[in-house]
Amino acid sequence: MTGSYAAAGLVFLGLFLLGGAFSLFRQGSGSNSMRAMSLMLVLCAAMAIGGGMMRW
User: How far is the C-alpha of 23 from the C-alpha of 30, rounded, in Å?
Assistant: First the structure.
């Protein structure tokens, strides 16, 4: 039971990070460093969602 709660937490964390990455990408449309940071957030979000799916 605890594993499914951890999996759900990881999936929700990944969705939260995806929202943050989208917001950061829209704010820093001109600068490359903001785009790179939003790309790193997308990668972290994908790892969190993937880890949550594997744990489920």
Answer: 14
Residue 28's Cα: distance from chain center in Å? 18
More confidently predicted of 26 and 2: 26
* Of the candidates 20, 52, 54, the residue with the CA atom closest to the CA atom of residue 39: 20
Q: What is the dihedral of CA 26, 31, 34, 36, to 10 degrees?
A: 110
What pLDDT was estimated at residue 49?
93
Cα–Cα distance for residue pair 49/13, rounded to 1 Å:
8
Q: Please spell the DSSP secondary structure of 11-55, one letter per residue.
A: HHHHHHHHHHHHHHHHHTSS-HHHHHHHHHHHHHHHHHHHHHHHH
